[in-house]
Structures are given as structure tokens and as C-alpha cells.
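Whiteboard transcription, Tuesday session. T.W. wrote the C-alpha cells on the left side:
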């Protein structure tokens, strides 16, 4: 799948189990020797009755991340297109918490990812204090 320039590999583990590790995402995500993708999206059964799915996200470098807006929109379309749900409002458990995905009548997906976290220690981002903007040095 792809959304706004990001491409995703979606793996469904709702009714079966696999222990996906960062090394797998790194191997599969390599564009020269693997399938190639920006992120691996994993659809899992929920761990709580108040959510519809659990959703894990790995970058192509193998790092697991908390959220991805484009990935969440693709996730919503995927679970509906594959008839894993008929709901138009989907509650999903992520590493960063529960998010709400809403499929509009025109097929577009909106995502409520909660309030933004701006404190450097929560992002994580090394800064002396929270600010409205930051200067970033780029080496190389």
C-alpha cells in the first residue's frame, strides 16, 4: 500500500502468530535485497475488548515506532478492504496509545492521533527546553 509518498508492507496476524523482530523489518525493508518499503504495518488481534485491533509499525531500518499518520490511514483502508471489519470508526491500539480511525462516506480516512507531544524528552529529542522552533545542525 502507499499513502502520500510512503509505501507500506502490511502483515496480517489477527488469527495467527508470528514473532516479527526488528531484524525481519530491516531485511524485508531493504530495497536492494528485500521487498522494500518505508514501513511494515502489522495487524494484530486486540489485547483489550475496548479496541478493534492492535497495530505495530516498524521502519525499514528495523526500529519500532509509536505512530504514523499515513500508515494509520492505510491501515484503516486495509482492514476494511480485506473485510476484517465493517466498522467506519475503528479504535486501534498502538505503541503510542489508542488512536481513532474514521472512514468517511467518500472513502477518505481521518485519524485522531491525540494531542501532540512537544516536550523534547517525550519525543525523544535532545534540547535544553521546550520551544516553538529549534535550530538543527546537519553534519555532512
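and on the right, the sequence the group agreed on:
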Amino acid at each position: 500500500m502507499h499513502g502520500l509518498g510512503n509505501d507500506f508492507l502490511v502483515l496480517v496476524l489477527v488469527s495467527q502468530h508470528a514473532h516479527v523482530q526488528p531484524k525481519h523489518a530491516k531485511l524485508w525493508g531493504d530495497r536492494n535485497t528485500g521487498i522494500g518499503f518505508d514501513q511494515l504495518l502489522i495487524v494484530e488481534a486486540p489485547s483489550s475488548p475496548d479496541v478493534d485491533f492492535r497495530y505495530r509499525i516498524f521502519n525499514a531500518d528495523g526500529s519500532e515506532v509509536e505512530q504514523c499518520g499515513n500508515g494509520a490511514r492505510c491501515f484503516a483502508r486495509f482492514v476494511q478492504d480485506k473485510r476484517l471489519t465493517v466498522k467506519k470508526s475503528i479504535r486501534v491500539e498502538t505503541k503510542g496509545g489508542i488512536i481513532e480511525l474514521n472512514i468517511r462516506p467518500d472513502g477518505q480516512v481521518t485519524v485522531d492521533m491525540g494531542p501532540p507531544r512537544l516536550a523534547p524528552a517525550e519525543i525523544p529529542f535532545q534540547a535544553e527546553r521546550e520551544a516553538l522552533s529549534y535550530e538543527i545542525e546537519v553534519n555532512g
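Someone added at the bottom: The first helix runs from residue 22 to 29.
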